[in-house]
TrEMBL record:
PROSITE patterns: CITRATE_SYNTHASE (PS00480). It comes from Deinococcus wulumuqiensis. The keyword Transferase applies. Coiled coil: none annotated. Belongs to the citrate synthase family. It catalyses: oxaloacetate + acetyl-CoA + H2O = citrate + CoA + H(+). Keywords: Transferase, Tricarboxylic acid cycle. This is Citrate synthase. InterPro entries: 2-MeCitrate/Citrate_synth_II, Citrate_synth-like_lrg_a-sub, Citrate_synth-like_sm_a-sub, Citrate_synthase, Citrate_synthase_AS, Citrate_synthase_bac-typ, Citrate_synthase_sf. The gene is gltA. Gene3D superfamilies: Citrate Synthase, domain 1, Cytochrome P450-Terp, domain 2.
Length: 377
């Protein structure tokens, strides 16, 4: 029998110049540049453009891209009304999936699958994802939808549309770093799904709706929400050690710990941990951070030698919470960042497209015959 790579683990199907991951050493780079440098020195806007074009932009190119994003932040009135009319209590990812699909109906360029069209659509999608998600959040809470502003950064504008208040420079920068850390991560499930859809020469909006559907699953996009549930269950830092020790003794899964790729610290988690500590101490919301700090020490001592460490989801939820984002919107925020990686990966694969058509090992009957209905038992 042929070897089967369950979950496609280790299967190579394409080449990419965008993202490199060395899981055993905890390395993540975009265009060869370490994620730590992107987080420290760059912005979500610059990383998005770099991923789309496969190279660092010039100052002029970045300024033009930033202007394009700002010019495309507003969403059509028909979509605003659709978001207002959505049933209350829907899953935010369901709402996002529907909104993006509807957005495609309103785009006269939607069916154009040329590289030039895909790039133009990508700019609009990157610009409008944050507007859509903020609008969904406010509409679901019965609040007026806040239109975007053109004088704020991408991250700052989202926080403004979410709360109706202009964020501090520190809040905007913290959220910007979180977006940078989530913008792309190789051939994860949602990126692969977007590429698989694109390989059929389907339109860009269908690719993004497919990716949203994949990200919606709790094994992919919902881990940071589950971390917050765990923190609420623990309650206080003095209960953390007993809670985690019991989990480990019973060999139960601990949310935000372990990764399919990383067998060392997820480098994104190291960046977020430092920022989470600063924000927690400054905002007086240190309980969550102290619980996570306690859990991390126990995890590293008990199972770190097995290559199991905290991942990016471990600290991202506390950062989002400190910024006033509700946990049910953590996964849409993931999409808000990952839209750049999705679009860039689709564009890259489209340059040398080949229809994805994997196979399966057949394990069913080989000598069966049709049985008439009256003879079936």
């Amino acid at each position: 029998m042929s070897n089967i790579a369950k979950g496609l683990e280790g299967v190579l199907f394409t080449e990419s110049k965008l993202t490199f991951i060395n899981g055993s050493e905890g390395i993540l780079t975009h265009l060869g540049i370490p994620i730590q440098e992107w987080a420290e020195k760059s912005t979500f806007e610059e990383l998005s453009l770099a991923l789309l074009d496969g190279e660092l932009p010039t100052a002029e190119e970045l300024a033009r891209f930033d202007a394009d994003l700002k010019a495309n932040r507003a969403i059509p009135d028909q979509l605003v009304q659709l978001i207002r009319d959505m049933p209350k209590g829907v899953h935010p990812m369901q709402a996002l999936r529907t909104a993006v699909s509807y957005l495609g109906l309103l785009d006269a360029q939607a069916e154009d699958v040329t590289p030039e069209a895909r790039r133009a659509i990508s700019i609009r999608l990157i610009a409008q994802f944050s507007t859509i998600i903020a609008a969904i959040n406010r509409a679901q809470e019965g609040q007026d939808i806040v239109p975007p502003r053109a004088d704020l950064t991408h991250a700052g504008n989202y926080l403004y549309m979410l709360t109706g208040k202009e964020p501090t420079a520190e809040q905007a920068r913290l959220f910007d770093i979180a977006l940078v850390l989530h913008a792309d991560h190789g051939m994860n499930a949602s990126t692969f799904t977007a590429i698989a859809t694109s390989s059929t020469l389907s339109d860009m909006y269908s690719c993004m709706v497919s990716a949203i559907g994949a990200l919606k699953g709790p094994l992919h996009g919902g881990a940071n929400e589950a971390v917050m549930d765990m923190l609420d269950e623990i309650g206080t830092v003095d209960k953390a050690e007993a809670y985690i020790t019991k989990k480990l003794d019973n060999k139960e899964k601990i949310m935000g710990v372990g990764h399919r790729v990383y067998k060392n610290f997820d480098p994104r988690s190291r960046v977020l941990r430092d920022y989470a500590e600063v924000v927690a101490n400054k905002e007086g919301k240190s309980d969550y951070y102290q619980i996570l700090e306690t859990i991390e020490k126990i995890i590293v001592d008990r199972i770190g030698a097995k290559g199991i460490y905290p991942n990016v989801d471990f600290y991202s939820g506390t950062v989002y919470s400190d910024l006033g984002i509700k946990k049910e919107y953590f996964t849409p925020i993931f999409a808000l960042a990952r839209i750049s990686g999705w679009c860039a990966s689709v564009i890259e694969y489209s340059r040398d497209n080949r229809l994805l058509r994997p196979d399966a090992v057949y394990t069913g009957a080989t000598d069966a015959h049709y049985v008439e209905m009256q003879d079936r038992k």
